[in-house]
Amino acid sequence: xxxxxxxxxxxxxxxxxxxxxxxxxxxxxxxxxxxxxxxxxxxxxxxxxxxxxxxxxxxxxxxxxxxxxxxxxxxxxxxxxxxxxxxxxxxxxxxxxxxxxxxxxxxxxxxxxxxxxxxxxxxxxxxxxxxxxxxxxxxxxxxxxxxxxxxxxxxxxxxxxxxxxxxxxxxxxxxxxxxxxxxxxxxxxxxxxxxxxx
Length: 198
Prior knowledge:
The longest helix has 18 residues, at 179-196. The protein has one domain (16-196): Uracil-DNA Glycosylase, subunit E. The protein has 198 residues and is α/β, with parallel strands linked by helices. It has helices at 3-8, 53-64, 72-77, 97-112, 125-139, 149-152, 173-177, 179-196; strands at 31-37, 80-86, 119-123, 157-159, 162-167.
């Protein structure tokens, strides 16, 4: 299934929205990683150019976790799908709640496409907020407690039978600069891949 075509069929306002333009065998996906926001240039997103900016940090994170990948196709072949919570590029330093809400119907639909997901990794605070907005509609409470990611990393959090793993943002130069976060994200990816291969 082409994810972009599927999301474009939804009856919501789509101006400036960017969706993952990739064909995916939905039943092979066991984990979803939700990044914070799409880049200004769609070619720099996960399924854009082969040397896309978002892959410049993502592939090294998998490699640091001891997982031999060299492309987004390799990551998909592991059963891992990557997307963004906010489907519109940010224009300010922070991402407003309104911007998250605007993208929410698309993220919610996207997550629901995959029938056999065991793990959802939330990469950064925006991804956590977006997922909590979705979970609140179903359970009337946040799936992820409102405490720091550092305190949550080793918690076993479940939402509708799916393991929810809060982690840190995985794109942009900050992840390369902040070595401790780079190490922690790689550790989280290692745990996630181990879970989906059991």
